[in-house]
TrEMBL record:
Catalysed reactions listed for this entry: 2-dehydro-3-deoxy-6-phospho-D-gluconate = D-glyceraldehyde 3-phosphate + pyruvate
Pathway per the UniProt entry: Carbohydrate acid metabolism; 2-dehydro-3-deoxy-D-gluconate degradation; D-glyceraldehyde 3-phosphate and pyruvate from 2-dehydro-3-deoxy-D-gluconate: step 2/2
Top-level taxonomic group: Bacteria
EC number assigned by the record: 4.1.2.14
Entry keyword set: Carbohydrate metabolism, Lyase, Schiff base
Assembly with partners or alone: Homotrimer.
Lineage: Bacteria, Pseudomonadati, Pseudomonadota, Alphaproteobacteria, Hyphomicrobiales
InterPro entries for this protein: Aldlse_KDPG_KHG, Aldolase_TIM, KDPG/KHG_AS_1, KDPG/KHG_AS_2
Stated name of the protein: 2-dehydro-3-deoxy-phosphogluconate aldolase
Record keyword DNA damage present: no
One Pfam match: Aldolase
GO MF terms, alphabetically ordered: 2-dehydro-3-deoxy-phosphogluconate aldolase activity
Organism from which the protein derives: Bradyrhizobium lablabi
């Protein structure tokens, strides 16, 4: 798969999702019911972050037991993380930032991947390695929509998945930007609801969010 085809596949996947929940799964037994709750609410493309010891097993369990879920790995920080994600067989990978070594490894990988950027220089590095779809992180803290619009001037063909400070209240505003393919965030699965097993509540948040974005 060429760099262009990987990016197009990722862009199509993100565009179909519009909203990608950022999942930090602390307990393995939460993985499958959480994924089922998200899917029931119309949210199928899931980012399982490598922030906990159970992340890889959680992603594996979701892939095995929730066939309607489309699983990716987030918080990829280095080439070893990228290799773990690719070996697991997930559909995509995302990073909060990127290093030259990671960009080089990702360019050689078969895994559709979005590096994280917050500045024009970081975006130039990503584009130089063939990544025209990137994660804008931390979106609100890095200047918000004004910063994204500023980047659109010198980089009109770049596409973004903003994450960081995105919520139910502002997701629609971000998605109305012409260069935004999807948004990411954790508001779809509040930690308190995950800890208490309030799966119906999570489904309700997802259903309400998706209906608000697709009236």
């Amino acid at each position: 798969m060429t760099a262009t085809s990987k990016q197009e596949k990722l862009a199509a996947l993100f565009a179909s999702a519009r909203v990608i929940p950022v999942l930090t799964i602390e307990r393995l037994h939460d993985a499958v019911p959480l994924a089922k709750a998200l899917v029931a609410g119309g949210v199928r493309v899931l980012e399982v972050t490598l922030r906990t010891p159970v992340a890889i097993e959680a992603a594996r369990a979701i892939m095995a037991e929730v066939p309607d879920a489309i699983v990716g790995i987030g918080t990829i920080l280095n080439a070893a993380d990228l290799d773990r994600a690719e070996a697991l067989g997930v559909q995509f990978g995302i990073s909060p930032g990127a290093t030259p070594d990671l960009l080089k490894a990702a360019a050689a990988s078969t895994l559709p991947y979005a590096p994280g950027i917050a500045t024009a220089s970081e975006l130039m590095q990503a584009l130089a390695h063939g990544f025209g779809l990137v994660k804008f992180f931390p979106a609100e803290q890095a200047g918000g929509i004004k910063a994204l619009r500023a980047l659109a001037g010198p980089f009109p063909d770049a596409r973004f998945c903003p994450t960081g400070g995105i919520s139910e209240a502002n997701a629609g505003t971000w998605l109305s930007e012409r260069n935004v393919v999807a948004v990411g965030g954790s508001w779809l699965c509040p930690p308190a609801d995950v800890r208490s097993g309030n799966w119906e509540g999570i489904t309700g948040i997802c259903d309400r969010t998706m209906k608000s974005l697709n009236p």
